[in-house]
TrEMBL record, chain A:
UniProt xrefs under SUPFAM superfamilies: Actin-like ATPase domain
Main localization of the protein described in the UniProt heading: nucleus
Domain of life from the UniProt record: Eukaryota
Annotated region described as Disordered, given as residue ranges: 410-439
Name of the protein described by the UniProt record: Actin-related protein 5
Bias kind Basic and acidic residues: ranges: 414-439
Membrane-traversing stretches: none
CDD domains reported in the protein's UniProt record: ASKHA_NBD_Arp5
Keyword Amino-acid biosynthesis attributed: no
Key words, A-Z: Nucleus
UniProtKB/TrEMBL annotation, chain B:
A Pfam family annotated for this UniProt entry: YL1_C
Keyword Cell membrane found: no
Primary location group: nucleus
Gene designation per UniProt: LOC115711678
Protein name, per record: Vps72/YL1 C-terminal domain-containing protein
Entry keyword set: Nucleus, Transcription, Transcription regulation
Domain Vps72/YL1 C-terminal stretches: 73-102
Species: Cannabis sativa
GO annotation, cellular component aspect: Ino80 complex
Single biological process term from Gene Ontology: chromatin remodeling
Length: 723, 124
């Protein structure tokens, strides 16, 4: 952290007499407390309070400021985050303020019955009287403070630097703070609040903007971007561009200069263990094991097969034996003879025998197609196979007629099969012929050939794709289906949409004049169009697709680098990132444009939706608001422009401010921008020096004053900075 | 409590000698009940600034006016100057690549980008 909190308990509290004031710089981001006249505040911490629950004991405790995050592991911080007493730059939650003050006084070493020191505490410009009053009440009632003075931090910083000769007694103080930015004109060393202006933007917004941008850019590492970490990154890397447009151009063009300006944050990353390719021995061993296993499987299968053959042969022999025996048995005795065997008739035995022979042949692995081959060989002699077909019906008996019909049917089917086979054969011949033609062409000029092939392939691809899109998504007019537009219309295909249109027109056509529907025959065609069967689509692969398949296979043969598009028609699927191993680059947070984009909002608040003037414009607004329009005074003011506050630490802010203010001032006006000696601590130092002066007590008010003079007086209360 | 927590004096003690009124006396039931503070908006409303002369500076009238400079439009994603804006998402973009990206963004992300410049759709 660039700001190191200092929270050690001080031990010398009792050494200070009650007249020594305690000086508090109560900033929205940091709280600083110390003794008047010293150069450094004693205690510094972030102005936040957490009330987590202790994990083991379960009691709610109060933790003020920022602590070692490792100590917070004993507490359950999920219920309540860090809370601030500020809204914008006004203190509004005095309960939290009380915790903060408790902690501050405790660390300062207070150990008496009350805080018996005057207090100088900073507040925002034109602090609402409610906040002032509540703060005074808190300090008087709870801590017993004798007297209080309120001052503005930017003014103290200006005075401190004026004393050190950094700025003149007339000038402009520009103070970009944590939640707000002020411009305060100083005339004769006194702030003129009439000419003051405030824009509600500050370091908080810059950090928040950066945090948002980074977590949108790197959604996987969102948990890394804690508030504290981003604050650190902002402090370390952000700068103000002299001209945002040209600076962004550098990055857009990817120039070398931009590359040098890009910062990279490598998140902890350990490369996944790389798998070493297995050694030769390992491979051989694995192959041997595999071979052994497959050998065993083969043996098992062989044994099973032989046992099955054995079984079947036995059965066959048994059946044949039975048949032979049956021949010797007389006709009448057959049933009694067969009753033992379980068969009923001779036919049954024969059919069983057939079955067994067939399965035996199958197990022995004889070609199964034999029968079909034989059948087809016999085909030419159809008259022999189907003898009944050519005989006229009247010459046949009823039984024969039945048989004839059967034969007729068989004949037509076998003829059909024949024809299909013929066609297949012809197609094959055709393909072969074209391939051969292609081959000839290829041999003539291989490169040209491949090129032509690819062109043809691409054309066909597009054609098929187009057709598919039409089918699924309607006309080619909405070509943006890639971007995932999902309207109702886009979900229906063209034909389905046409059907819907017909239905709706039919539904709304009623009642308009005379209903003449049905007078003409064509009217009834409408129902045909409407019917659902109408939108059946030829699902089979059409000519184009088969040609495409042929081409892609051909290309694969010829061109080894060719990869066929797998998903034709789903072009978005090609953009889906493939799963790949994570690399070092995936764990890098790159800051390019963000480095100057985030602090740029100080100059352009409308980038984050705050419609107010930016830093440079505010200076002009401030000068315009001054009651007297004195040219000389104005040039005196612009020749001592003083920048302070926590958000002015970005490099380049002075130059940018100078350029910006030069644009809004008349030509030739003197402009000088100076930065505070220490933009962060100067406010406290100025306040400390102020409180140490002997005239400080003329500017404080006591509890008596507060309760006697009332709210109106407190509203008008204003510190005189020149003593 | 763990020894290192006590060592670091992380936890604010409940009783502090220098206070006239202790926290537990103010809020005997631990955390105070209900809301007894005002938001900044309510504070400002209660200040009744309209009853005071307008040339007297107060918290409200010292605010800066809207900017008079033309607003530079930047790409919501990259931060480059943005000549275009997408009518569907309302995001500003710098070039075709960014356009491709914003069209592939889920709506949640689009809204978060818009929220950056306070242009997101807010449902009330």
């Amino acid at each position: 952290m660039p700001f190191i909190s200092r929270i050690q308990r001080q031990s010398d509290y009792s050494l200070f007499p009650p007249s020594t004031p305690i000086v508090i710089d109560n900033g929205a981001s940091y709280f600083r407390i110390g003794w008047a006249g010293e150069t450094e505040p004693r205690v510094i911490f972030r102005n936040i309070v957490q009330r987590p629950r202790h994990k083991t004991t379960g009691e709610t405790v109060t933790i003020v400021g920022d602590h070692d995050p490792t100590l917070l592991k004993y507490f359950d911080c999920t219920r309540s985050g860090p809370r601030s007493a500020f809204e914008s730059n006004v203190v509004y939650q005095f309960e939290i303020m009380e915790y903060v003050l408790d902690f501050a006084f405790d660390r300062l070493g207070a150990n008496e019955s009350q805080i018996d020191h005057p207090i100088l505490i900073t507040e925002c410009v034109c602090n609402p009287v409610y906040s002032r009053g509540k703060m005074a009440e808190l300090l008087f009632e709870t801590y017993g403070v004798p007297s209080i003075a309120y001052g503005v931090d930017a003014a103290f910083s200006y005075k401190y630097n004026q004393q050190h000769g950094v700025c003149a007694k007339d000038g402009l103080a520009i103070c970009p703070g944590f939640t707000t930015t002020h411009v305060i004109p100083f005339i004769n060393g006194e702030p003129v609040y009439k000419g003051c202006c405030r824009t509600n933007i500050g370091g908080f917004h810059i950090t928040d903007y950066m945090k948002q941008l980074l977590s949108l850019k790197y959604p996987h590492h969102m948990a890394r971007f804690t508030w504290e970490k981003v604050e650190d990154l902002k402090m370390e890397h952000c700068y103000i561009a002299q001209d945002y447009g040209s600076e962004a151009q550098l990055f857009q063009k990817g120039l070398k200069e931009a590359e040098e300006k890009t910062r990279c944050w490598q998140l902890p990353w350990t490369p996944p263990p790389t798998e070493e390719p297995p050694s030769e021995e390992e491979l051989a061993r694995k192959a041997a094991i595999k071979e052994k296993q497959s050998q065993r499987l083969r043996e098992m299968a062989e044994a099973k097969r032989s046992s099955r053959i054995n079984e079947l042969e036995n059965e066959l022999n048994g059946l044949e034996f039975l048949l032979r025996q049956l021949e010797q048995v007389q006709e009448g005795d057959i049933p009694s003879f067969l009753s033992e065997t379980g068969y009923v008739s001779k036919q049954e035995i024969e059919s069983a025998l057939m079955k067994v022979t067939q399965s035996l042949r199958k197990t022995k692995g004889e070609p199964k197609g034999d029968q079909a081959e034989i059948e087809e060989k016999n085909d030419p002699i159809t008259s022999e196979k189907f003898p009944l077909i050519d005989i006229p019906d009247n010459m046949l008996t009823a039984e024969q007629l039945k048989e004839k019909r059967k034969q007729l049917f068989l004949k037509t089917t076998s003829e059909g099969r024949q024809r299909a086979k013929q066609k297949r054969h012809e197609e094959e011949l055709e393909r072969e012929r074209r391939n051969q033609e292609d081959e000839v062409k290829r041999l003539e000029n291989p490169e040209l050939y491949v090129e032509q092939l690819q062109v043809k392939y691409k054309e066909l691809c597009e054609k098929v794709e187009q057709r598919k899109r039409l089918k699924t998504n309607g006309g080619p007019t909405n070509g943006n289906n890639i971007s995932g537009g999902v309207g109702r219309g886009e979900r229906l295909s063209a034909t389905q949409r046409e059907r819907m249109r017909l239905l709706t027109t039919a539904a709304f056509d009623r009642g308009k004049g005379e209903d003449t529907f049905g007078a003409k025959d064509e009217d009834w065609q409408l129902y045909k169009l409407m019917s659902k069967d109408n939108d059946d689509e030829d699902e089979g692969p059409n000519e184009d697709e088969s040609e495409l398949a042929r081409l892609s296979s051909r290309l694969q043969e010829v061109d080894p680098t060719f990869v066929p598009k797998l998903d034709i028609g789903t072009s978005q699927s090609t953009e889906v990132p493939r799963l790949r191993p994570l690399t070092k680059e995936d764990f890098q947070i790159v800051f390019g444009v963000e480095r100057f984009r985030c602090p740029e909002i100080l100059f352009r608040p409308n980038w984050i939706g705050i419609d107010q003037a930016g830093l440079d414009e505010m200076a002009g607004v401030s000068i315009r608001r001054l009651p007297s329009h004195d040219q000389e005074l104005e040039s005196r003011l612009t020749s001592s422009i003083f920048v302070t506050g926590g958000s002015c630490l970005f490099p380049g802010i002075n130059e940018r401010l100078e350029a910006g203010i030069r644009m809004i001032r008349p030509c030739g006006s003197p402009i000088k921008v100076v930065k505070a000696l220490d933009p962060i601590l100067d406010a406290w130092r100025g306040a400390s020096a102020y409180a140490a002066s002997s005239q400080f007590f003329t500017q404080t008010f006591s509890k008596m004053d507060y309760y006697e003079k009332g709210e109106d007086w407190l509203r008008g209360y204003e510190l005189r900075y020149t003593l | 409590m763990e020894p290192e927590v006590i060592e670091a004096e992380l936890v604010l003690p409940t009783h502090l000698s220098f206070k006239r009124v202790q926290m537990y006396e103010k809020y005997p039931k631990g955390q105070s009940r209900g809301r007894h503070w005002k938001h900044l908006r309510q504070i400002i409303q209660a200040e009744n600034y309209q009853n005071f002369p307008p040339d007297e500076p107060n918290y409200v009238n010292i605010e800066s006016p809207p900017s008079m400079h033309p607003c530079k439009k930047i790409c919501d994603i990259t931060g480059y100057e943005a000549p275009y804006s997408d009518p569907r998402t309302n995001l500003r973009y710098a070039n075709a690549e960014v356009f491709k990206l914003i069209r592939s963004l889920p709506n949640e992300y689009v809204q978060r980008y818009l929220a950056q410049r306070n242009a997101a759709v807010v449902l009330k």
